[in-house]
Amino acid sequence: MSDDRMRILGMLAEGKITAQEAALLLDALPPEAEGAGPGSPSRPVPKFLMVKITGEDTVDVRVPLGLLRAGLKLTTLIPPQAMEQINKSLGEQGMSFDLKNLKPADIEELIACLRDFEVDIRSDDGDHVKVWCA
Predict the structure, then answer these.
(1) In what side-by-side order are the strands of the sheet with 128-133?
(2) Residue 96 above 90 pLDDT?
């Protein structure tokens, strides 16, 4: 556990901050890399979604997975009526997905699962597409 996390938990234990304040501070910290504990995966939690396309043209894209976290935080700013309309529209498109039920822990679990994500496609004409997280 990082020093920052230990300090926050210490302040909570001493009564210097509330549990809600501690949760906000902990959420603001970057996720810790896993791999040190017994039974934990050996690869660290990925920070980027990488896309590389080679062939006649080359495309190399690196998207920070922190965008998922930021997007989740932005959903709290959506007015309830707009949220209902978004969820209704998603349902009409065949996606029964309720943004109100999405929690920070869900995003962290998704990002942790992406450590083993890889798509590698090679075509007969020499084009190559690779998508992975690192």
Answers:
(1) 59-64, 48-54, 128-133, 118-122
(2) no
Domains in the chain, number: 1
The predicted model gives 95-99 an average pLDDT of: 80
Quick check: 35 pLDDT over 50?
no
The percentage of the chain sitting over the pLDDT mark of 90, rounded to a whole number, equals: 19
Contact 96, 90 (CB under 8 A): yes
| Strand residue runs (E) in 1-134 | 48-54, 59-64, 118-122, 128-133
Is 60 among the domain residues? yes
φ/ψ (deg, to 5) at 55: 160, -135
Structural domain containing residue 82:
45-133
